[in-house]
Amino acid sequence: MITAGFRVLTCADAGFFHFLPALEKNIFDHQGEYPVIYDIGMTKEQVAQLKSEVIKIAPPEGFSGSSSSGALKATHKPRCVKHFLKHNDRDVLCIDADVIFLETLEDYEFSGGDIAVTPRHPKEMLSEDPYLNGTLNSGVIYFRNTPGVTKVVDLWEIECGIDEKSDQMALSDVLADAAIKDGPGTGRAHGLSILKLPAITYNDVSYSIGKLWHFKNAGRYSSLQRKRSVVIFVARHFPRMMAWRLTRNRQKSEWTDSSN
């Protein structure tokens, strides 16, 4: 049973394919339908193993290289989102392939925003330079399907081509008027409402209390890949155990929405 009006979107090339089989099942378990996956360089054999709708799209040159900040560019994202918005009438939640669902997301959680992003997580704020690669974490972004939003996605794509920026830095700059650094709340940019969601709930890079856990940089570290696999397995086969763990973690957490 489909639980929300929006569609979940993710992207992968051959190197990130290994995240997808478990991820698509994880999304189906929580949202009632498989995601749409944008193929930016998978093999035919890999695509054949997936149950999701797969759309092949040519990524921009250098999308998998390093940005000026040292982070991966990931400049394919606006192209994929723009394609989806053009060919569908539903809103879309764009997630990185190393993000997983721990709880179901409902439409009301994005109400009031044309675009929803997450300012930096408290864990990320412990970094020596937390804004080196932008004021937000682009691992989770929600887009309402409107002409105004599509125009901002166009600006995002253009910004990705400036000064070797990553997609994350580019979107941070495009949405600068929304005051992302101020934390959760609502801002305005380009005439749109920008919903700034708490990362501890919607982009949890500490993988402890959120509805969405983001195993950031799991593509680079096998230890994170193993941890992610274990969490997905437990969440799928022992949901009560995972629910108990989430409740326990939330009771003990030092982080609250207002601290993000």
Structure description:
By secondary structure, this protein is α/β, with parallel strands linked by helices. The chain has a single domain (7-259), classed as Spore Coat Polysaccharide Biosynthesis Protein SpsA, Chain A (Alpha-Beta Complex). 32% of the residues lie in helices and 16% in strands. The chain is built from 8 helices and 10 strands. It has helices spanning 20-31, 44-47, 77-87, 147-159, 167-174, 199-202, 222-237, 239-252, and strands at 7-12, 36-39, 53-56, 92-95, 99-101, 115-117, 140-143, 185-189, 192-196, 212-214. The strands form 2 sheets. The chain has an 8-stranded mixed beta sheet with strand order 3-2-1-4-7-6-9-8, covered by helices on one side. A two-stranded antiparallel sheet has the order 5-10. Strand 2 (36-39), helix 2 (44-47) and strand 3 form a beta-alpha-beta unit. Helix 1 (20-31) packs parallel to helix 7. The longest helix is centred in the last third of the chain and has 16 residues, at 222-237. The protein is globular and about 45 Å long.
Helix content: 25-40%
The CATH architecture term is Alpha-Beta Complex
Dominant shape? globular
Strand order in space, largest sheet: 3-2-1-4-7-6-9-8
Number of domains: 1
Q: Kindly identify the CATH topology.
A: Spore Coat Polysaccharide Biosynthesis Protein SpsA, Chain A
Beta-strand residue fraction: 15-25%
What's the multimeric state? single chain
Record field, number of beta strands:
10
Helix- and strand-based class? Answer: alpha/beta
Within CATH, the superfamily carries the name Spore Coat Polysaccharide Biosynthesis Protein SpsA, Chain A
Could you state the order of secondary-structure elements as H and E?
EHEHEHEEEEHHEEHEHH
The CATH class assignment is: Alpha Beta
